[in-house]
Amino acid sequence: VVPGETALAFYKAKNPTDKPVTGISTYNVIPFEAGQYFNKIQCFCFEEQRLNPQEEVDMPVFFYIDPEFVEDPKMAKVDLITLSYTFFEAKEGQKLPLPGYQ
């Protein structure tokens, strides 16, 4: 991904069980210092997703790396940024707090 250009990635999720599962995904950016330059335009995270038994889906994330990334001397040795997701089963009535908000 070239900083400043938009990119589209797909994450595959599969429900290997015989019962429907409703969950919420959260994301992580590694190295952590690069996270401030990662900008999601559209993402499936923090929204409930229902997966039926044995269902497999591709979930899109549309994003870009802020062009200021290349001007930050702390990022000079960073040539790989990893975006990962963790899928948690949603509990009825439970809401996840948004990052950075109390």
UniProtKB/TrEMBL annotation:
Entry membrane topology: Single-pass membrane protein
Pfam family, one: CtaG_Cox11
Keyword Translocase: no
Keyword Magnesium recorded: no
Main location per the UniProt record: mitochondrion
Keyword line: Membrane, Transmembrane, Transmembrane helix
Subcellular location: Mitochondrion inner membrane
Gene Ontology, cellular component aspect: mitochondrial inner membrane
GO MF, one example: copper ion binding
Entries under PANTHER family matching the protein: CYTOCHROME C OXIDASE ASSEMBLY PROTEIN COX11, MITOCHONDRIAL-RELATED, CYTOCHROME C OXIDASE ASSEMBLY PROTEIN COX11-RELATED
Subunit structure: Interacts with CNNM4/ACDP4. Interacts with RANBP2.
Task performed by this protein: Exerts its effect at some terminal stage of cytochrome c oxidase synthesis, probably by being involved in the insertion of the copper B into subunit I.
Protein name, UniProt field: Cytochrome c oxidase assembly protein COX11, mitochondrial
Gene source species: Jacana jacana
